[in-house]
Every structure is written in structure tokens, then in C-alpha cells.
Request: fold
Amino acid sequence: MTTALVPNYARADIAFERGEGAYLFDGSGRRYLDFASGVAVTSLGHAHPQLVAALKSAADRPWHVSNLVRIPEQERLAERLGAASFADRAFFCNSGAEAVEAALKAARRYHHLAGAPERYRVVTMQGAFHGRTLATIAAGGNPKHLDGFAPAVDGFDQVAFGNLNELRNAITPRTAAILIEPVQGEGGCRAASVEYLQGLRAAADDYGLLLIFDEVQCGFGRTGKLFAHEWAGVAPDLLAAAKGIAGGFPCGALLATEKAAAALTPGSHGSTFGGNPLAMAVANATLDVLLADGFLAGVERVAAHLRDGLARLQAQYPRLIEDVRGKGLLVGIKLSAAAAVGDFVTAARQAGLLTVPAGDNVVRLLPPLILTVAQADEGIAILERVCRAWPRV
Reply:
């Protein structure tokens, strides 16, 4: 397959022409159950009527006006997110990497304005993924992502995920912040324990650091709460969000407490397209659905049902499936050495189920939050057929 595109993606030879709810349809009309959601982006499935109506309505008004003037829908979304979360302030951008970059800049400038410019380093976690910019690949520390992009951006000290002692030992007088995904996505769907997240908050408070949660993948309802850190009863100082925030329309956000947000004074940071009227209309419509009575409780119920089915599958095929992990509808199937994750993802797609590979030989399941129990069962049935056909199990 020859195209004029830069060859930085290893694309599957398939193109979709239509989507409806939890399903996608290719050019021949074949239906696929979508447990990928565009890598956790189409959080309310495809062609959700409320999102479509919001975008169509916004398309009749100015698309872009820039952040040199007020954008009322942006102000409304910021107020609503603040009312539903820890945040006092919000900054809108276009992607998760931009949101993380904004958080890192805010952390450095917070200490700079406090008279401690030497405090610029950030403690990060092994297995992390924070984006593809030069700073965010340095924060993630994955050698594969850093290959060919030396020297790595300075300012990051990486420790083992889940080890509080190692984290505390890594803190120095030059440390500004702690950065962590409450549930690692690319790193293999590893969920931080409640105790660990509470310990991170305590460490940040003890040493005067800012605590940054990267909820680009695990936020906006994916775990059954609006944000994954809510399960631990702790709050960060800064939170990066994107992916499911606008159900597929490009949008990202940095949420912040008043003290952290105060670091970003006029001229210190910005975004040309961030918070544009189109994105804000769809993001507000997405939030309407997520905050509706019973919606997130429904995500919890379906997620529990899916996990029960996957646990049965693991018990049935223990030589193929080593573990089922994650939180809510961010689920990982840890494969044994009997299968390579890429081969399993391909086999599932050929069987009609879209999934996403992750690190640690994990198959990631990221179905839309509108998934029904019947569709969860359909996905489990497809996975069972893939497992049954797998050689040597």
C-alpha cells in the first residue's frame, strides 16, 4: 500500500465508512465491535445524537475567534468542570501532550515565582506515557520513544510505579512536582492503588511539590467516575485531560487549583486553536451526557460485568491469559509468552473486534462508555473464539 503520508504509523489495511454507537462499518459493510474507541477518544461511541447536534449547531456560528477575546462556551465548560471536580481553573488546548506540557510549564513557573527557580525537576514513573513531544517523551522515559531524539530533555527523574519509598528517595531540593497516570494506559493498563495515590499526595505536601495527574486516557468517565483519582479520595494540583473530553473532537484541558493556576500569567502560555467554539460545544455536550443521573454508575455496572467475563476467560485459558488488569472500561489482558500482543490484536480484528496493543504484552480494551451488557458479552464471545483458535493453548 503506497501513500503520500509520512511512514510513522504501522496502519492496518482497513478503512471505516460509518459508525453507529459501539460499532464501526468498513467499505464492504462488515461490522466491527469497537473496543478501541480511537484509543479512548470516542467515549460516547460513534454518531452520538447529542454530540452531532451540538457540532452542527456550532458550525453555523463562528468556528474560530482566538483567545484574544472571550469565548462564552469556554467559560461555561471551565465553570462546569470546576463544579464537578477539584479544579478552580481550566486552560483549554488541543491534545493530551499539550495538556501535559502546560502542566509541566505551570509547575516550573510556580516555583520560579515563589523564588525557587532551581526547583524544576519532575519525578515520573516507569511505564508512563505522557505524549510525543520532546518533553513528554522524556517524561515517559520509554527507550523506544526516545530512540533518535537525543539528547533527552532534562528535568525528569524516573522511579518504579507503585514504590513510595523509591519516590521519596528521589525527591531533592531541585524537585518541583510529581507526575503520574492514576491508571497507566500505554504502559499496560496498570492501576495505581488507593494507598499509593494517597501516599503521593502526602509526599507532595511534605516536600512542597505540585502533584500532577495525567488523566488523558483514564479521565472523563472511563473508570466509572469523572476522574480516576476520585477513587482514592485525593486531589491533584494539576490535571491533564484530553481524549474522551469531547467524544472525538480534538480537545485537551489543564485543570488546576487556584494556587497552581496563578503561575500561568498573561503571556506565559497559550494556544491558537485551544478552546475554540466548535470544540467547546462538543465538550459541553459530552459533559451533559457524562454528568446525567446514573450514567457513570452505568459505566461501573457494565465494566464489572466485562471484568467478570474476562476473569472467566482467564480461568478457561490460563496458559494464554496471565492477568486481567485496569480500572473501569480501561482494561488490559496480559498475555503469556504464548502470544505476541500484535498478533492477538490482529486476530481479534479479523474476528470482528477492535482492540489496542499496550506495553507489557497487554491487549487494551477501551470500549465506549455507552457499552451495554449485551455488547460486553459479544466482545467476550469474540475473544473466546480467538483464544480457542490460538495454537498451543
Remarks:
- The mean pLDDT is 97.
- The radius of gyration is 21 Å.
- Residues 54 and 73 are 12 Å apart (CA to CA).
- Residues 51-290 form a domain with the Aspartate Aminotransferase; domain 2 fold (CATH 3.40.640.10).
